Amino acid sequence: MLVKRHIQNFAYWVDIARSNEIEIEIEIEIEKEYAPLLAKGEIGFEQLLHHAADNLRGHRALSVFWQLTRRCNFSCPFCYIRDNSQRQLEATYEEIEELIDCLLEEGLAKVVLTGGECLLSEHFDHLYSRLKSEGVLVTIYTNGSLFNESRKDLFRKLPPYSVEVTLYDCDATSQPFATIEWLIEAGIPVLCKFTATKSNIDHLGAVRQWCDEHQVDLRLDGRLFNGDNGIDAQVLSLEEPTLIALEKDQMGAVSLDRSPLESHARKALGCAAAKYGAYVSPEFKLGLCCDYPLLWDMRQEGVRNALCLLHDFVDREKEASLVGCSGCEAQILCEMCAAKAESIKSNDKTMYRVPLGYCDEVRTRYLSLIG
Ligand code: SF4
Ligand code: SF4
Question: Which domain holds residue 12?
Fold first, then answer.
């Protein structure tokens, strides 16, 4: 079944009975340029969103990262988000409905549903079905343990754009592995992720082999973060040389080729989120992304007003420079931006300064990777 979506003068059709069937309809230029590549799978929907966002008059929430809950049925000792005590703060059915209505009016095109474990939310099925039937592309981040028969029926009828399953061990008889096999059989794009720590690094070889045999991509991640739930993830972190070896393996030789340096001062908010992204927290707060500390409480501000506050904020800040950065050879690894820089208020303006020591750290990592 085809559903038509609009982002201002840009329109496209989505077949909601398939994972990612998209057809561009209006905008002759973009159709000529992108339609053949899209049909061959050579570009993703993200490029189309970039194009659509270039023609917007200001920030809009076209792509939303929605953390439905902090709760999880697993208890990984390094998890920065897990907090099973927070249920009462999660969004209600009515709040979810109001937010979706407002986002659809803005042109919402893409949503990532995540957690904690997002499939634990009692509103997941409703929220997912509503987004899908409106033609929104939905990606699900999950631990893969809660795919029961009714969920499978739902995903057969309305397949997700993609599913990313994080594996924590190599037990191929466990539910997460069975979920990945089911997703492959159902023709739903799937990515396996493995968070490598001191306690599971020995399983990595077997996970790799399983992924190779099942022809499914595997993304490794070994950098752990301490969250605000009191968990000290660093005690489980691999030693730096092992992390570098993992990263080298992930990035490959080509992507480490020196990228052309940006000749101008970098913007603190030069990312896609600053053009068309938004973040919804488990406590029903709205922000730019899960790393940017400023959030608007949609219960206090009202949903529509919180969206306006986010747009105004981004439109005001998006020209701010990243003081202390003029671009360097390590920028391919650099994650510095407004969310991680030190913000300094001066005459109603905010400046963002790179924290001392950050650049040396990134350059050291870069040299280890190319060495
Ligand atoms: S962390 Fe920084 S670069 Fe990433 S989305 Fe947030 S503001 Fe943008
Ligand atoms: S490492 Fe420092 S100088 Fe290099 S790109 Fe990042 S912020 Fe800029």
Answer: 2-54
Same-domain pairing of 160 and 89: yes
Beta strands in the chain (DSSP E): 2-7, 10-15, 21-24, 63-67, 110-114, 137-142, 162-167, 190-195, 217-221, 277-280, 285-287, 295-297, 322-323, 342-346, 349-353
**Quick check: pTM over 0.85?**
yes
Check whether residue 6 and residue 113 sit in a common domain. no
* Torsions phi, psi for 325 (to 5 deg): -125, 130
Does residue 276's CB lie within 6 angstroms of at least one atom of ligand 1?
no
E-strand ranges in 8-93 read: 10-15, 21-24, 63-67
Q: Are strands 137-142 and 110-114 parallel, antiparallel or unpaired?
A: parallel
116-139 mean pLDDT: 95
Question: Which residues partner with 280 through β-bridges?
Answer: 66, 286
CA distance 10 to 29: 11
Q: Does residue 211 share a domain with residue 115? A: yes
Mutate-to-test residue for ligand 2 from 259, 331, 332, 360, highest number of ligand atoms within 8 A of CB: 331
> Within 13 A of 143's CA, how many CA atoms are on the CB side?
20
The answer to the question of residue 219 being in a domain is: yes
Q: Which residues neighbour 245 within 8 Å (Cβ) at sequence distance 6 or greater?
A: none
Side chain identity, residue 65:
F
CA dist., res. 233 & res. 198, Å (int):
11
Q: Compute φ and ψ for 300, nearest 5 degrees.
A: -80, -45
Cα dist from 99 to 31, 104, 113, 131, 137, whole Å: 31, 9, 14, 11, 16
Residue 292 Cβ < 6 Å to ligand 1: yes
Q: Number of H helices and number of E strands within the chain? A: 12, 15
Question: Nearest ligand to the C-alpha of residue 323?
Answer: 2
Measured CA distances, 170 to 49, 207, 219 (Å): 37, 5, 15
Q: What is the pLDDT of residue 189?
A: 94
pLDDT: which is higher, 204 or 235: 204
